Amino acid sequence: MTDASSIPWTPILLTPGPLTTSERTRAAMMTDWGSWDGSFNALTADVCARLVAIANGTGSHVCVPLQGSGTFAVEAAIGTLVPRTGKVLVLVNGAYGKRLARICEALGRDHTVYETADDVPTTPEAVDGLLAADPAISHVGLIHCETSTGILNPLPAIADVVARHGRGLIVDAMSSFGALPIDAAAVPFEALIAASGKCLEGVPGMGFVIARAEALARAEGNSPSLALNLSDQHTYMQRTGQWRFTPPTHVVAALHEALLQHAEEGGLPARHAKYARNCEVLVRGMERLGLKSFLAPGIQAPIIVTFHAPRDPKYRFADFYAAVRARGFILYPGKLTQLETFRVGCIGHVESADMERAVEAVAAAFADLNITTL
Ligand SMILES: *Cc1c(COP(=O)(O)O)cnc(C)c1O
Questions:
Q1: Would the CA dihedral through 121, 124, 125, 126 be positive or negative?
Q2: Domain boundaries, given as residue ranges, for the chain
Q3: What positions are modified (N6-(pyridoxal phosphate)lysine) (predicted)?
Q4: Nearest alpha-carbon partner for 157 in 203, 116, 117, 122
Q5: Closest C-alpha residue for ligand 1 atom 3
Q6: What is the Å distance from ligand 1's center to 270 Cα?
Q7: Residue to probe by mutation, ligand 1, list 19, 67, 69, 200, most atoms within 8 Å of CB
Q8: Ligand 1 mutation pick, 99, 172, 174, max ligand atoms within 8 A of CB
Q9: Residue 97 in 3-state DSSP?
Q10: Taking a C-beta distance cutoff of 8 angstroms, is the pair 297, 365 a contact?
Q11: d(Cα 78, Cα 191) in Å, to the nearest integer?
Q12: 218-274 pLDDT, tens per residue?
């Protein structure tokens, strides 16, 4: 481990959260808010309204914010929306899908896993067959962008199939919300889960669930948890304007400021375009160095890219990480068990010039370490 005091500058985080935030977003955390104060309640209400609007769910959907990291919100969504007698079909092609299955297990929710390889998106045809074969399945759990590789699963097509079978869809859109299009008016889902510290470019500490109002209303009494009960959180907030239990006030304030910037910069299409540019500059630059990305371009989301590590036997991720870090960039280890890889995030308050410099830092790091990449 490196001592925090050894960072004389703020490194650029090319990680999928926490990520690099704007100075304006960080400055919003300089105020101490009272959790009972009307001004803080108004801040929460505005954050929620903006989040529902980003999903185009105004009028039909509600936003339930929840303290904690994204996983807390995933666990809350499964526990609240899936009845105790329900059964979840979990679609897996990476670590977050596996985590969703473990959540079902921990909550005692019956579930079945359909797994494809890390570089194979789930197809709507497969889901169609699985739902036709098992009428006991009440819900389908899908990871929109599987952050363990960066693969994009075909959400709209899968949502159509799930709706046609009359089942409920729960989407982990943690690493896509705010950047990849999700239209609640056109894509049927019961709940969609995301968090403050990913593509919205807030700081970590708050998850949220965008739920179809009727689905949430039907879910009362399902949750086996006190703190992770979205029905109770929503009911209490509707009645009082306040959070149940201490809110992450500074995180909410930062998210509010981040959402203002999201809108000012052009909303979701502009965020998508920025990350797409970042991703393209990154992949092209790394290709010039001889480093190939793991996924085919057609299934790669512009969120995080997995690269094959150099074949040079001298390569060690820890040394590479340290050498890149010394140049001001924080990378992410790979999450594949069979292959030596590393990941570079495209999200956060960074732009293509930062990605160019990151590629230069990677090149210089390999030169330092005397590792050949070509
Ligand atoms: C980040 C992320 C989560 C939540 O992880 P936390 O460590 O709890 O923040 C869940 N699903 C996906 C796809 C993610 O990218």
A1: positive
A2: 4-18+267-368, 23-264
A3: 198
A4: 122
A5: 70
A6: 23
A7: 69
A8: 174
A9: helix
A10: no
A11: 9
A12: 999 999 999 999 999 999 999 999 999 999 999 999 999 999 999 999 999 999 999
- 155 or 36, higher pLDDT: 155
Q: C-alpha angle with apex 267: 181 to 81, nearest 5 degrees?
A: 50
- Which is the closest atom of ligand 1 to the Cα of 17? 1
Residue carrying the six token digits 């690099």: 20
Model-wide pTM > 0.90: yes
CA of 65 to the centre of ligand 1 (A): 15
What separation in Å is there between the alpha carbon of 232 and the centre of ligand 1?
Answer: 23
Contact 86, 138 (CB under 8 A): yes
CA 176 to chain centre: 5
Could you tell me how many residues make up the chain?
374
Q: Could you report the per-residue pLDDT of 1-27, keeping only the tens digit for each?
A: 455 555 557 899 999 989 999 999 999
Neighbours of 238 (CB within 10 A): 10
Distance spanning both ends of the chain, measured CA to CA: 30
Q: What's the confidence (pLDDT) of residue 3?
A: 54
- Tokens read off for 326: 């010394």
Please, is 352 exposed, middle or buried when counting C-beta atoms within 10 Å of its C-beta (0-12, 13-18, 19+)?
Answer: middle
CATH code at 23-264 = 3.40.640.10
Q: Name which of 332, 355, 354 is nearest 150 in CA terms.
A: 332
Q: The domain at 4-18+267-368 falls in which architecture?
A: Alpha-Beta Complex (3.90)
In terms of phi and psi (left: phi > 0; alpha: psi -120 to 50; beta: otherwise), the region of 221 is: left
For residue 33, give every residue at least 6 positions away whose Cβ sits within 8 Å of its Cβ, in sequence order, or none.
39, 40, 43, 249, 250, 252, 253
CA dihedral 305, 295, 116, 192 (to 10 degrees): 40
Q: Provide, for the chain, the percentages of residues in helix, strand and coil under a 3-state DSSP scheme, each rounded to the nearest 5.
A: 40, 15, 40
Q: What is the token pair recorded at 244?
A: 């149940």
